[in-house]
Amino acid sequence: MIMGHKNIDIDAIGSALGIYRLAKTLEKECHIVTEPTGSSLGKFWEELNSIEEYSECIVTEEKAIKLISDETLLIIVDTHKKGYVEFQSILNATNKKIIIDHHRKSPDYIDDAEISFHEVYASSASELVTELIQYAREDIELSLIEAESLYGGIMVDTKNFTFKTGVRTFEAAAYLRKFGVDIIKVKKWFQADLVSYNEIANIVKSAEIVEDNIAISICEKEDENTNLICAKAADELLTISNITASFVMGKSGDKIVISGRSIGDINVQIILEKLRRWRTYNSCWGTARRIYY
Ligand SMILES: [Mn+2]
User: Fold this and answer.
1) What is the per-residue pLDDT for 196?
2) What is the Å distance from ligand 1's center to 135 Cα?
3) Are both 53 and 146 inside the same structural domain?
């Protein structure tokens, strides 16, 4: 069984689909447990669900719990944090776990994994999974949408091959491209619609600059996609010259979300972790997520 993180994104689902194909080639029964909310997966999700095989392999939390036995191996992709997996119940119900992740190690890590393939220098979980597929002993034949979702995972996590890319990132991308990935289509999956685009533009417009190079702004609109809008606006702020770090805050239900981004020396993860600790005493702060440093 494969599980990603809360607010599942293309890197997590792409890695999950890659591992799914690996397991299937090895003739193992395999399911992906996820219930995506909001629109972070964009049009990709519709396309995936229109293919019969995936509507069967992707299961809800309720169904996954029933499928779990003592023999079940849980593969966690794109996170290693206990508190950030999509379903706590699945984590608790399984004995054997493998982690595949690329985020900076957090104190809240899952400490009982059999194998932890945790490579902070990799651009994305999709890059790591692509390497596993490429160098597997068996020949793995990815379907087009599997290759495209892995490619999408690398593309989104590197902001179109700009950040955290190494030689191995491009090797993985080249390998995926051989399966016939339509790069324009993958890009189109994740482009903002006009309404979100305008919201992002408003956030950028109202940004305040502190210390000459840090942009801070607020997302006024509140809906199920606040997380995503904040993240995209924070990315957008970094495209302004001189800006090397950005923070965008928004409200999502009773939580405050903050997206932090950096392309310079400022480690936004450390700043956000401090804010999170502060939150323990001030319950109005919610999760700070999607952190790059
Ligand atoms: Mn990722």
Assistant:
1) 84
2) 21
3) yes
